[in-house]
Amino acid sequence: PSDPAPVDMIETMVELRPRELWPRRKLTERDARKQARAVLGALAAEEMIEPPADGAAETALVDEAAAEALVRFDGLMREYAYLRNCEFEESLAQKLVQGLTESLIARLDRQGAFERPPTDGEFAQVAQSLMAHADHHLAVSPELDDVTLLARHAGRQLAALGLVKEGVELFEDRPPLWRKVVELAGGALGETPPTFFTRLADDVLGRYRAAWREHARELNAALFTRGTETYTRLAIEELLARATVRDVRLTEYLAQVRRFRSRRVPQHRAHHAHGAGNGLMNMAPPPDVAPQPQLKALQERLASAMRWRALLRPCESADLSDPGGELDRALQMPGWANVWTRPIQNRVDMLFTGVNTDIGVRVLGRRLDDVVRASEEIAAVLKQVAGSEYVMAEAVRGKGYVEIHVDREKAERLGVSVGEVNDVIETALGGRLATTTVEGRERHGVRVRYAARWREDEETIRGLPVPRRRRAPSAEGQKRGEAGSPVLGTIPLAEVAEVRIVEGPASIKSENGMLRNYVRLNVRGRGALDFIDEARRAIADKVRLPAGVYVEWTGQFEHDVRTIRTLTLVLPLATAMILLILYWTYRELADALLMLLAAPGALVGGVLFQWLLGYDFSVTVLVGYIACFGMAISTGMIMLVYLREAIAKAGGLERISLAELRQAVLDGAVHRLRPKLLTEGTTILGLAPMLWASGVGAEVIRPMAAPVLGGILIADEVIDLLLPVMFYWVRRRRWLRLHGPTAQLSGQADGAPCGVLEPAVADTFSTTR
Fold first, then answer.
1. How confident is the model at residue 594 (pLDDT cuts 50, 70, 90)?
2. How far apart are CA 735 and CA 747, in angstroms?
3. pTM for the whole thing?
4. Cβ neighbours around 690 below 10 Å, total
5. How many CB atoms lie within 10 A of CB 166?
6. R_g (Cα) of the chain, nearest Å
7. What is the C-alpha separation between 267 and 57, in angstroms, rounded?
């Protein structure tokens, strides 16, 4: 449009396929640096380059070359995978149509809808007819509507071939009896009953996913072989470009490569480019200039060695949508910042904090110029604080406004009324309400406005005719409605007013009665709270806020602050409630405290599994720890039940000796083996699949399940080894209070094995001898 509305945010919906259907592999930064270091050593050993002066120079050279080569590597791998995917989708559409035809004919044949089975030629004819009506969208994402349209078209083709019986409803769903019973039960539980077309669509979707999995498996294998060779070549090029090259031929080779890369992509391939943000999307693939034999041999040798040690891991959604990820590098707009989030999360963040970035600085004031200037100064300071990324102050200016100033002296001298000038401007540009039409209960205003040719730009506005009189009415007369003398004619608006285009705000936002602007940014590599503390001090030292302007800090970090405050209360409260419930159950404080010994073991196991799986601390992880504590203590209760039962069967503390007490504790611990294995087995079977969950909510389930699973496994070992020992010493102390110190000798002699004498027993023997 010629006059677009102010826009401060563009929402782009990106739908990702399931992770198992991604034919992509990424090289880890660790392997990239290791390979770059190996390339540097090989180049120096072959005397192709001057070796770095010292270790620090070597490390800097390797890191810089590896970072640039890794970005180019991601772009080339994405381009290669994208082109292979395009080729696969072209063939996939034909496979899906053939599969759809097979499923449709098989279902109709089972329902007895055919006079005779279709021949191979008739099958091919129907499939060919469907291919003419199949859309490319079928290969990208088969939907129920697409399958329904194709199935109905195939039904008409089958009827035209005379294969369908008279009076048969082709698409009537007639499943077997057992399936009807299952579907009736599902309908009672609220499930939508399937139809003929939904069953057909499910079959097509199954074929679609199976084909993509097979394609992804084959392409990933090709990417691994191609990736090691590609990265090695890129590392060689980047190191040669940064090091001192000894061979003149290598210098000429690098010059040819740079010249080829500076050429633009041909127009017919532009739509295939999915390169990274370093310009690969506008650059042709690496050139096939005359390769140097020594470089070719070096590349093959290093790539072969890399295949045995490198790891090309599958891509995650975070690799695409995290700040600085592939979507950020591929989609850049000058003056705009990307925020990749989920739709619901974005709505919640915008409603809750007003920003959808990690941190937002809300600048409030009474004058727009002061607010804009303060926002820009704050943004400049925040860019210098360590950890800040994508710092951007919202653009307020940049909208063109038509400004008209009437020269009252000229207007009075020429007999032009200021009020009539305003009336002309209002009618010409905005329109004036002439009348209102009544249509039933509706009322519609009728506005009168000049034709578009009178308001195209400032020049045409300057030529608007303004009425001129011999004597313009005075201000008092205009208030009373006096028209003044008769109109003598018209003059252009430019003779009595100055018309110009001035720059103004694209949008004006307010909050709590004050003008508002945001400075948005993300934080990487450090905690948000630490960053805010440093940023507050930096702004206080370097930014002088105008009078009436103040700042507020908001953003997603507020969720962390509230969560930490809540968990600081919830964690001790949950522990206290567990202790209280244990005390009410056993009526013994010592046994309740013994049960809490499982909590430290669960904590150690949870931290170990969390570290092994690479999950950071988050709200979901902390919730998993709370669940882990409860489950670990519940397994400890099973041990305590068996130990108490073993002592009771032995006769109680009043009727047993220390040796019998020890044996009873051992028997109770051993008898707990079967329920322990059952508990651990059901826990592992229930939680382990969550670690490989995919789909909606998987990013929450996986971090939550990791500490629970690790805590249960480690806490069980703590319970098996430590809890019986602690239980024995608690019961031993009670036994001593019941029988007295002198009973230790007799208790030891009643049944303790020879050579096993406890320290307390030995001390008593020496004093009474």
1. confident
2. 10
3. 0.56
4. 16
5. 6
6. 40
7. 42
